Amino acid sequence: MEMLMFNINRNISLPIYQQLYENIKQNIINDVMRRDEKLPSKRQLSNYLSVSQTTIEHAYQLLSDEGYIYSKNRSGYYINDIVNLPVTYKSKVPDENVQDEISYQYSFKLGAIDKVHFPNDLFRKYAKEAFDEQQIHLLDSGHKQGDINLRKEIGHYIFHSRGVNCSPQQIIVGSSTEQLLSIITDIISGSKYMIEDPLYKQVRNLLKRKHVPFEFIPVTENGIDIEQIKKIDYDVVYITPSHQFPTGVIMDLKRRTQLIKWASEKSNRYIIEDDYDSEFRYSGRPIPALQSLDNSDSVIYVSTFSKSITPSLRVAYAVLPKSLVSVYQKKTNIEGGTVPRHTQYILSKFMNEGHFERHLNRMRKIYRNKRDIILEELRQHPETFVISGEMTGMHFILTVINGLTLEECINKTKDFDIDIKPLSHYHFKKTDNTPNFVLGFGGINIEDAKDHINALITCLT
Question: Residue limits of the HTH gntR-type domain (predicted)?
C-alpha cells in the first residue's frame, strides 16, 4: 500500500493518532482502501510519518475497536468489510491479538491477572489425571450445560460466597460471558434490553450483532439509574452491581431492592446480573449477590473464572431462574458444550479439593497489597489525583485534577510509554472530557508496582 495517502498536520491541535484514525477511516468509507487490504506495519508507518509506534498503535486500536480494521496474529492489520461490521467486530478484533502485537514499558491493562502466582503444579497434576485412561469418558461430547460435577462445585461455591441459591440443573457452563449472553438472548427472545453506560463494549456489540433492541442507562454514584429504567421500561436490564465496569461503583442495597421490585411487577421482566469482580473485596462485608435477594425468579446470574483463575481458562457460567430452565431445554438451536471436558474436569477437581478457595484467599492478599502500594503513592499527591472505585476488584478510577485536559493526559501517557485507558473509552451516549482513567493493577508484578505508579505520577504531574 502506498503511504502517500497517510497525511498529518502538525500545526493543528488535533492529536496525530486521531488525525491518522480519521484519515484511514474516511479512505475505508470512500472505498479507497478496500476489504482485506493490508495496512503498513506500525514500524513502517512510524518511520514514514516520523512519529512513535505507540501513536500508530493508538490509531490502529481505535479503528479496530470500531470495526474498520482487523488484526491477524503475527501478520498485521487489514481492512475490514464494513458492510459486515456488526458480525465481524467482536471476532476479528479480540483484545488478545492487540496484547500480542504491542508491549508497553508500564501497563495498567484491564483484565490482566497475576501470572506469577498461578497454581501451575496443581493444574499440571489435574491435567495429567484428566488425560488418564480412567477418564476416557471425557472424550465424549458431554452435557450441553456442562459436566454435572463442575456444575455442582459452582453451585456450592456461589451459594457460600455470594448467597446464590440454585440447583445444578439451573447452571449453564460456557466459554465466556458473551457466549452466555448470546444464549440468554435466545432464551428470552423478543425482549428489549437496558444496559449500563459506561460498560465494556462486548455487551453492546453482541446485542447489535444479534439485532436485539437496547437502550443505554446512565450509571450514578450508587449504581444504575432506577428512574431511567422505569421511564424507558424495556424488558431486561443488564448490570454489573458488585463492581460496576468500569466506574467501580457498588450498587447499594436500597437500589438493588428497587430493581428487584421493578422486575417483579411483570412476568416478562428480567435482570441479568454480571457479578463482575465480586471475588475481590478489600474492606467491609460483601453485599450479597442480587440473585440472593430475588423472590420473584427474575434474576439471571452470570459470572466467570477469568479474574479468579485466568482468562485463558475460558470458563464462565450462568444461573437461570427456574422458570427459564424448561424454556432453555426446549431450545434445539442453542450452542452448548463449548468448554472442553478435560478443562471442566481440571476445574472441578481444583474446586472440589479446596484449592480454589485457598487460591482466592491468597490472591485477595496479593491484589490488596498491590492496590495499597499504588494508592499510597497516589495519595501523596492530593492536588493532582482523586481516586474512586478502589474498594473492590482489580481496577479503580483515577481522576486528574491539576488542570491537564484529557487530551493532554493521553498524549503524555503515550510519550511515557504507559498503557492506560480513559474512562471515556467505555462511554456510549455520554460525552465526558474529564481526565478520568481506568487503572488496572492485576497484571503488575508486586515488585514493579512502585515503578509503574511513579512513572504515571511523573507523567501527569
Answer: 14-82
